[in-house]
Amino acid sequence: MRIDIWSDLVCPWCFLGKRRFEQAVTELGVDVEVVHHSFQLDPSFPRGTSRSTREVLAEKYGRTLEEADAMEAQMEERAAADGLEYHLDGVHMGNTVDGHRLVHLAAERGLADAVVERFYRAHFTERRSLFDRDSLVELAAEAGLDAAEARSVLESDAYEAEVAADGEQARALGATGVPFFVIDRRFGVAGAQSSEVFTQVLRRALEPAAS
After folding, report:
1. pLDDT tens across 169-194, in order?
2. Integer Cα distance of 183 and 164 in angstroms
3. 200-204 contacts: CB < 8 A, separation 24 or more?
């Protein structure tokens, strides 16, 4: 069964949604082919720069910095309930196009899920940069990509068009945010739903094959 997932690498709900979906897949014991797609929450963010996530959240939602801190603390608790370790104090936001370009490279090498997982853990747990090319190359290599090839991609415009096309496809499907899942090319699931919701949708997708 094919599963298409649109996500951004600095979206805390995307990592959480990925883990909840994986829990449902494990529970059902179903074989799936996961195809990762790029979605940039803020493509206008200047490349090579970053800002404190708490400042971005405060501005976006009209909150104080203290209220933004509370939001991040709540997110850490939600993640922990699903077995994820988030450390959001001091985390920064930035343009994720370079990270997404490396995910496209990884897809061609059969390593997309490993690279996505490594980038998520680096950002949310280890507070390592996804906006510095040296850091991205190092992380990509840790996930199994060739470091020289990864650097070559980042020094070119490789996969720029593919990243843009992923975003356009998501919008054409009606996705206004991420994570966004398309299961078996038939069922759409928006947001980091519970593992129970994913289980229900997967069971629906399996019904025709069982009938």
Report:
1. 999 999 999 999 999 999 999 999 99
2. 22
3. 202/1, 202/24, 202/25, 202/28, 202/30, 203/28
